[in-house]
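Format notes (please read before filing issues)

Several people have asked whether sequences and structure tokens are stored in separate files. They are not. Every record keeps both together, in the order shown below: the sequence lines, then the token lines. Line labels are part of the format and must not be stripped during preprocessing.
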Amino acid sequence: MPESTENTQSFLTELKDEEPIIADAGQFIKTEPEEMIERNLSVLYEDLEQEGTDTAFPISNHRRIPSETGSEYDTDLEDSSSPTRVAYDSSGIENYLKICEEMNMRPVSHFMRQTKNPSLSLRYQSLGCKKTVAITQALASNTFVECLDLSDNDIGCDGMVSIAHMLTENYFITELNLEDNKVGQRGVMNLCHVLAEHSYVKHLNLSGNGLKDPVAEILGEMLKVNYTLTSLIVKQNQFSCVGGKAIAGALLSNDSLTELDVSWNKIRSKGSEALGKMLASNSGLISFNVSFNGLDKLGAAAFVKAIKTNSQLVNLDLINTRIPGSECKELGKALAVNTTLKIIKLGNNPLKEEDIEILFHGLTTTSLYIIGLEDIPVSKGLYERLQEFEKERGVVIHYGKSGGNQRARPMTSSALRLDEFITTNLSKLAPMVLAKDKDGQLTIPEFKECLQEAGLRLRQNELNRLVDKLNLQDHVPTKEILMGKIPSVLERMRNSARPRPPREKEDSE
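Then the structure lines:
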């Protein structure tokens, strides 16, 4: 067995015993990311690199430089006198095959098929750490992939180290999904080192990794110096009040983050109060999801004050946050004053029928498009009054168990597909639609652009076919999109479209 293969099989065990580099969350900003990553990967490189031109990681020895004619070619930095031009492997496939051969590992065909796509999804592939290392080394030279989804692959801390190192060389990946990977504190620390200096990633998802308060503090320190990240999803972790305060403190000086999801954590009154106070002064957040945490009275009061003063937020999710009925009166007044909030979700809170009455009594005026009251039972009388409110104010209300928000209408398969995407990605789509909305409607190119920016991963020809099947006119109403009524609009447009003239029958004579 080659020596490099034996070393490869032992590098995971050696890295696993390595101690965390930095104990203090705030200290990591002071350490150079390149130095930190090199120290974490030193064992891996020493074991896998071979002497001579045949290396296990050729990416580290090759760089792309411009020629005098303006074209680009590869050059060996260790042998700068070599005049031979080599075709640049912009997909990373050739390098990946070499790495797999050196590591005595079977290549992942699902990865190889997607290396030239803008979106690379490797969800549920059981990659583990070893396969992740090989893939990330190949991606270091890839210029095609912009969205990388490695969710639910059990990559661990050491796999995260290799991802962090890859991001120091790859400037094309802007969206990174690492959900359900057990990346651990040391893994996130390595990633934050890179994000503090190499600011190219705009969307980061670290959900379901069992992260605790020290990691929230590390993320907070990174957010204080990173002004490129626009979306941070850290739901289904174990952040408590300490973690909530750390993130809130960072966003007091960061207005670049537009989407924050801390749902399904353990952030209680003090932590939620800090998040509410942050929201009152923050002018960057457009979508904020704090659902399935415990606001209680203290946190709820802070969020009510924030709604009164915030002039940027569009989507606020407060589902199952234990909002007391005593705050409904002030909440109604705050919603009446706010002119930018379009979607608020209050479902599954301990609100009684009289609390709902008080809430809507305070809504003398409103700019809201959607009010969510899911899983809050309402009587028949209140249901009828809410229906009248919908007609008078042009608001969609998602009722509780009595009324329900039913949409019984025929839809084409294309409309169903689009409806599902809009429903699940409304928090991303809403700010993009509103940013392009000038006269209450979007043009077809603007509509397509919003769908792609929100994450509808289709090739351009597929998207064109989908929209063509819907028989759209020149414009799509903005309000109907945000209300979730796009299928009915599309169906109406389809029915009102000019029918195709019947084919003339050929003369049989």
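For reference, the curators noted about this record: The first strand starts at residue 62 and ends at 66. The longest helix spans residues 33-48.
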